Amino acid sequence: MATYPTAIPLIVDIRMEWASRQAGSRPVIRATWNGAIIAESDHTVVVEGNHYFPAESVNSKYLAGSETHTRCPWKGMASYYTVTVDGKTNRDAAWYYPDPSPAAADVAGHVAFWRGVHVEEVGEDGTAVRRSALSRLLHR
Q1: Which of 35, 43, 50, 117 could potentially form a cystine with 112 if both were Cys, beta carbons 3.0 to 4.6 Å apart?
Q2: Mind listing the domains of the chain with CATH numbers?
Q3: What does residue 126 show for φ and ψ, rounded to 5 degrees?
């Protein structure tokens, strides 16, 4: 009979994930750049693999409006922020939909990040939580 040594951690991870969902807990997601916490929330909305943070969870002192706009075929017109921390600038590293389409209504009032802004789940101690790929899919 074959043994699968990697299956046990996966089973444990899935059971822990199931238990946390049953308890009603939600993961805390944090966005950092250049050593600063830009946003942190346990109520992000995940769309196309991106965590959208509620606007009130974003530290606006790091954001400045940008003239950049792009159009998503199903979400609508996106606007951007430039992120600045300790004198370093990350142009258009955050985006949001000021008036999303009805299909994307869940991202209204939310901000997402890219271009080197690190977005990860953090535990109660503030350190990154490592999850299996399957668990990450289940945690959406």
Answers
A1: 50
A2: 7-138 (2.170.150.40)
A3: 85, 0
